[in-house]
Amino acid sequence: ITDAQSLYCGNMMGNTAVQVTAKEVRLVDLAGFKQLGEWAPPAGVQITHASCNSSQLVVALGGGTVVYIELNGRELREAGRAKLEHEVACVNISPLVGNDRAAVVAVGLWTDVSVRLLRLPTLNQVAQELLGGTTIPRSVLFTSFEGIHYLLCGLGDGHLFTFVLDAVRCPYLKYLFLLLTFFRLQGTYQLSNRKK
User: Fold this and answer.
1) Chain-wide mean pLDDT for the chain?
2) For the chain, percent helix, then strand, then coil, each to nearest 5?
């Protein structure tokens, strides 16, 4: 799509890529740039955020709805949907190191200023952490450092929350404990979406 702003673009398996705009998700064959499939929200509803990995995609819709989409062969298939009580501010579906697929999606929310983990494919909530304050989460990311799995949550004011993900067993999430650690970056490096 060249006549609409891309909210997200990402590579997927099978030499494909997705392009997400406010109105639709398109799956494209990278060899010939042929559209293979698309997914669209209901009329009048916009996509606000998206994240993907090689075979999974999650989009947030206006009104607090989260939709889980899987790459099925060379087609997009909606596999889960959940309505949250607040608008979504950010999402992430990165698999943890050593896994091809994500078992959970991280979602940052407006209003209650929280981060939540939703189990895939059902999108049932398995963990919630209220971040406190009034600055919303702007970015969430699953990552691993030295064999320890983390969820990083960057706030709009530059603060970074780190959560240690303990006892996560993929692909079926059985145990999950969030251990909150907080640090403030000062000096030359800060995470922020604001210009000073």
Assistant:
1) 83
2) 0, 55, 45
